[in-house]
Specification:
The complex is a heterodimer. Chain A is built from six helices and eight strands. By secondary structure, chain A is α+β, with helices and mostly antiparallel strands. In chain A, strand 2 and strand 3 form a beta hairpin. In chain A, strands 1-8 form a two-stranded antiparallel sheet. Chain A has a two-stranded antiparallel ribbon with strand order 2-3. The two termini of chain A are 27 Å apart. Chain B is of the alpha/beta class. Chain B has five domains: 7-105, de novo design (two linked rop proteins) (Up-down Bundle), CATH 1.20.1440; 111-192 and 532-571, Alpha-helical ferredoxin (Fumarate Reductase Iron-sulfur Protein, Chain B, domain 2), CATH 1.10.1060.10; 203-298 and 448-513, FAD/NAD(P)-binding domain (3-Layer(bba) Sandwich); 301-446, FAD/NAD(P)-binding domain (3-Layer(bba) Sandwich), CATH 3.50.50.60; 590-715, no CATH class. Chain B has 29 helices and 20 strands. In chain B, helix 3 (52-66) packs antiparallel against helix 4 and helix 16 (317-325) crosses helix 17 (343-355). Residues 715-722 of chain B have low confidence and may be disordered. The chains are: A alpha+beta, B alpha/beta.
């Protein structure tokens, strides 16, 4: 895994898709590819209430990425210093092998360039000391990006609270 | 082909660098530059209309006048300077849809079109013929050449020498396809004239009804001019009629195509010799505002040997062919020697055979390899019984009582190359011998009959005794007097005269409308992007260029019937399918590189892409290794090679040739196409050893993501509540 962690507090997420928009604008993407995506799960009835969940799906930056193994040209790479998995557009020939290899559907197709494109945590922004585009625009601040060791403890705290008070809040 | 730098492509590179380099700090200014870049890219890819050029100019002007900083102003100024300097090239990209430097890849013209002196869009019409659309094919050809039928029979087909298919096996039989389509369209009454422009009521005079003059007459008449053609002979056609013998080009063919031109209202004055029966002054006074001299090259060079002027049985080839064409079918003698190795010599020899000469010799001082005549012509002459005497120099025509009895010859050897690059024949001493003949026909070469043009004293001539013209405008040294055809080029081909005639018609139109002449010669026009004809790779490889069926040798020796019988309809449609569509595929080799070097699959074997060292090509081999990954298609700059899903199959299609087709697998969840099994096998092989857990699941991109999202969801699921 990369040394970073992109945390989504699903409890807070309202599914506004602002993260997707910022991501596409930042990478100048045409219709089609979504490097990160809010997947709506549900709605399902919880008791009498319909409930839906919004799951933020970027790339997981796997420890041993299938896409990197699958890529025949060496375009798909895992950066040594921080483990970010990214595509070098100059090497990519658009064979889509990475897309088919990834079990999570992370690499996407850019029909304009005829190449694969994927979430790289906005590697260029990170190198300038900025945050990934999606995180900076999140309306409810449910997305948080940080080195893995300083990842927020929101979920643990919330769970502990739920356990102690015996309220059904998860 | 890539002779220089295309200013359109160059400007795109330059502007992209400026934009991506971040030099334009002002947002408004950057936006304008990006807009200009988009418009330039439209031009370079064939999507632009005529408004594009003024639009770029006006935005560039804004850059200069409204920009807050120096870099923007300089960028605007540089743009305006480039537009001004290369205005013609920018406009030519818009008008012709061709980029002769091939730097704008989507506008790179096919080699056959560039080789054609008339600039016909060959791949488009070959494809139309392959689809059985002969009428449309002829209509397309006639936008560049009003004589598709004539050229389909007698063109020297330079296109076929450049044909890329020739690097695989044999060139596409372009000439005969055209001939077939013209005949079929004529017979089906689909050979029609396009709509004529309204009359302009301005008179143009054309001197000479040969291919050059008639072509100019056709395009000028279409354009609404009143055209009069003055011709010394009693019929139209020029050298096509009196130079090319009937067994190669039947008179009906010329007559029918000339009739099409006459239908446009062109007036012919036959038996009228310019400079004798009518003068330049008279015509000027008659209201003609522009002139085209297309008188051809009807005078023969002397062989320069002793006895040439002593006997009536010595007749130069041009006179001989003209006489026969006009109906005099007397034989020159029983045993005839033709001096020379060009096409005219072949025509004279084969005509002599048909008139009944028992022995016909071609006397040529070099060897077969150096002969300028077409290979086919030489071959056919041999079939008909013409005998060749190579490495032979005639020195004297000998005879008695005013009759030729023999040709005194010397044998030669080939020495080192002379200034023309050909090896120089050196006489062998003491090798004299006599060739027993009773007629001699010198066919040394032709030149222009200058005496009829003596009136026009301001005409400038070249050292080669041809008319001197501006090559872009075809205008002579006299204002309003243009020239085309053999009179300009010296003895050349029908198709070159047609090209010149078309060019001069365009120039005359500009002259009469007061538009300045272009600085560069016109670029051939792309007439369409006809859909590919689909064909399996095996068929594409297996099709063989058909042999031309010939009239039997016996009949060819005694009649003037057309020697080439023409292809059958079936073989024409099949032959057209061999075309590689070089108007779309620019043979850059990117697909092959990607497949072998990047993907390591090496499925594409297309050695013909390399012009200098063509390797083996076999489209059938692709299917053996190809996994249909589509990387070739993603990187093709012109969409010549494409991946497409059709029903249950995925296909790889190169300009219509189906290189590979495989059944596809589907997403387990939604049923969407995920790709062929061979592709998934390749994938599994590559990710082996990392994780085998999911490798047998076939999921599409969306379902993969969705499945993961569901497994991650933080929501109290109903099952927990129960």
């Amino acid at each position: 895994m990369s040394k970073y962690y992109l945390f989504q507090d699903t409890k807070k997420c309202i599914g506004c898709h602002t993260c997707e928009v910022a991501c596409k604008a930042n990478k100048n993407l045409p219709v089609g590819p979504k490097l990160c995506e809010i997947i709506t799960v549900g709605p399902v009835f919880v008791g009498n209430q319909p409930k839906a969940a919004y799951t933020f799906m970027p790339c997981f930056h796997c420890e041993d990425p299938w896409c990197v193994a699958a890529c025949p040209t060496g375009a798909m790479q895992k950066r040594g210093k921080d483990g970010i998995v990214h595509v070098d557009p100059l090497l990519c020939v658009g064979c889509k092998t990475c897309m088919s290899a990834c079990p999570w559907g992370a690499p996407q197709w850019n029909p304009e360039t005829g190449k694969a494109v994927k979430c790289d945590y906005c590697i260029d922004r990170l190198d300038q000391g900025k945050q990934p585009a999606c995180v900076t625009v999140c309306t409810t601040h449910c997305l948080q990006f940080s080195p893995a060791e300083t990842a927020p403890k929101v979920r643990r705290e919330r769970y502990a609270k739920a356990m102690s008070s015996l309220e059904e809040t998860i | 082909m890539a002779s220089g730098v295309c200013p359109v492509a160059d400007t795109i590179h330059w502007l992209s660098d400026i934009i991506s380099g971040g030099d334009l700090k002002n947002a408004r200014c950057r936006q304008r530059a990006e807009e200009i870049l988009r418009l330039l890219e439209d031009i370079s890819s064939g999507r632009a209309g005529k408004e594009h050029f003024p639009a770029i100019q006006s935005i560039s002007t804004n850059l200069v006048s409204e920009s807050p900083d120096r870099t923007c102003v300089d960028t605007g100024k540089e743009l305006l300077a480039r537009l001004d300097e290369h205005r013609e090239t920018f406009l030519s990209h818009l008008q012709t849809q061709n980029c002769p430097d091939a730097a704008c890849v989507r506008l790179a013209p096919a080699p056959c079109q560039m080789a054609c002196p008339a600039g016909i869009d060959v791949p488009s019409y070959v494809t139309l013929i392959g689809q059985g659309r002969d009428g449309e094919a002829i209509e397309l050809i006639r936008r560049d050449n009003p004589f598709p039928w004539v050229c389909g029979l007698v063109c020297t087909n330079p296109c076929e020498f450049m044909c890329v298919r020739g690097r695989i096996d044999k060139p596409v039989s372009i000439k005969y396809l055209k001939g077939f389509a013209a005949e079929k369209a004529m017979s089906d009454r689909l050979y029609r004239n396009p709509e004529k422009s309204p009359d302009k009521n301005r008179k143009v005079c054309i001197i000479g009804a040969g291919p050059g003059g008639l072509t100019a007459a056709y395009y000028l008449a279409l354009n609404g001019y009143s055209v009069t053609v003055i011709e010394a002979l009693p019929m139209a056609g020029g050298m096509m009629m009196v130079g090319i013998p009937r067994y190669r080009l039947p008179r009906e063919v010329i007559d029918q195509e000339v009739t099409m031109i006459e239908d446009l209202g062109v007036e012919f004055r036959f038996n009228t010799r310019f400079g004798r029966d009518v003068t330049y002054k008279q015509l000027r006074e008659g209201g003609y505002e522009a002139f085209l001299i297309a008188v051809g090259a009807h005078a023969s060079y002397k062989a320069g040997i002793a006895g040439e002027d002593r006997y009536p049985q010595v007749i130069d080839a041009i006179d001989f062919l003209r006489r026969v064409a006009l109906g005099d079918r007397h034989i020159p003698g029983r045993k005839v020697a033709i001096i020379g190795g060009g096409n005219v010599a072949m025509d004279a020899a084969r005509t002599s055979i048909r008139l009944g000469c028992h022995e016909v010799y071609i006397v040529y001082r070099r060897t077969r390899a150096e002969m300028p005549a077409n290979e086919e012509e030489v071959f056919q002459a041999e079939e008909e019984g013409v005998r060749f005497s190579f490495l032979t120099i005639p020195v004297e025509i000998m005879g008695a009582d005013g009759k030729v009895e023999s040709l005194h010859c010397l044998r030669t050897e080939l020495g080192p190359p002379d200034e023309s690059g050909r090896r120089k024949p050196i006489p062998v001493e003491g090798s004299d011998y006599l060739l027993q003949v009773d007629a001699v026909i010198p066919a040394i070469g032709q030149t222009i009959e200058r005496k009829w043009l003596d009136d026009l004293q301001d005409l400038k001539w070249t050292k080669r005794n041809t008319l001197s013209v501006n090559i872009a405008s075809m205008e002579t040294s006299m204002e309003g007097v243009f020239a085309a055809g053999d009179a300009v080029s010296g003895p050349a081909t029908v198709v070159e005269a047609i090209g010149g005639g078309k060019k001069s018609a365009n120039a005359i139109d500009r002259y009469l409308r007061g538009i300045p002449h272009p600085k560069m010669p016109p670029v051939p026009v792309r007439r369409g992007r006809v859909d590919f004809i689909e064909i399996p790779a095996s068929t594409k490889m297996a099709l063989v260029r058909p042999e031309m069926p010939m009239l039997n040798d016996e009949r060819r020796r005694v009649t003037f019937q057309q020697a080439e019988l023409g292809y059958s309809e079936n073989s024409v449609r099949e032959e057209a399918r061999r075309c590689l569509r070089c108007d779309i595929c620019i043979r850059c080799g990117t697909c092959v590189d990607i497949c072998s070097k990047k993907m390591g699959i090496n499925a594409l074997q297309m050695g013909y892409l390399d012009f200098d060292n063509p390797g083996p090509t076999d489209f059938r081999l692709t299917a053996e290794r190809c996994i249909l990954c589509g990387a070739c298609a993603s990187n093709c700059p012109t969409e010549a090679i494409k991946i497409e899903d059709r029903g249950n199959e995925r296909l790889l299609n190169l300009c219509g040739t189906i290189l590979n087709r495989l059944t596809v697998e589907h997403c387990e969840i939604c049923g969407k196409v995920t790709g062929p099994a061979k592709y998934h096998d390749y994938l599994k092989k590559r990710i082996q050893g990392i994780n085998r857990r999911l490798e047998n699941r076939v999921l599409c991109l969306e379902c993969a993501r969705k499945t993961t999202a569901e497994s991650h969801v933080e929501m109290t699921p109903p099952r927990v509540l129960v």
